[in-house]
Specification:
The protein is mainly α. The protein is 83% helix and 0% strand. It contains six helices and no strands. The longest helix is centred in the last third of the chain and has 32 residues, at 78-109.
């Protein structure tokens, strides 16, 4: 639930990164591909729990920088836009990486006989998070 809320909340904000939404979505896609590549390299070496915990912890840490940047810096200044772009790219990378890890990890938790049912239930509950994540961008 929470992972989808975060992933889709960050992903829906991708169009606001730059003035040109097409370049912004292309940059978001590149960041997501890079995150999947890094996850692929990291998972076999360090397992599932440590990389997932690291990605989620770093996401939370960088997410705390958003409010001070928006409150303390002059609105729509060049410095604020650059910092917010950097933070958004980092958040997209970390959200995509943690999403990929949790999807693999959740699949491995269920026994073979109940894997499809377990993943279906997890996916159904996660979609509620996706709905709230996309709606929360309109409210913020």
């Amino acid at each position: 639930f929470v992972q989808n809320l975060v992933f889709y909340g960050v992903s829906q904000n991708t169009g606001a990164w730059l003035t040109n939404p097409y370049i912004a979505f292309f940059a978001g896609a590149l960041v997501e591909i890079a995150a999947y590549f890094v996850v692929h390299l990291v998972l076999n070496r360090w397992g599932r729990k440590l990389p997932y915990s690291t990605f989620v912890f770093l996401f939370g840490l960088f997410a705390f920088f958003v409010v001070p940047i928006q409150m303390l810096m002059p609105k729509d200044s060049r410095e604020q836009n650059i910092l917010m772009f950097i933070i958004n790219v980092i958040l997209k990378f970390l959200a995509s990486g943690s999403y990929a890890i949790i999807y693999i990890y959740a699949n491995e938790l269920f026994p073979t006989q109940g894997r499809n049912t377990g993943m279906g239930i997890c996916s159904m509950v996660a979609r509620f998070g996706a709905i709230i994540g996309t709606l929360s961008n309109d409210l913020l």
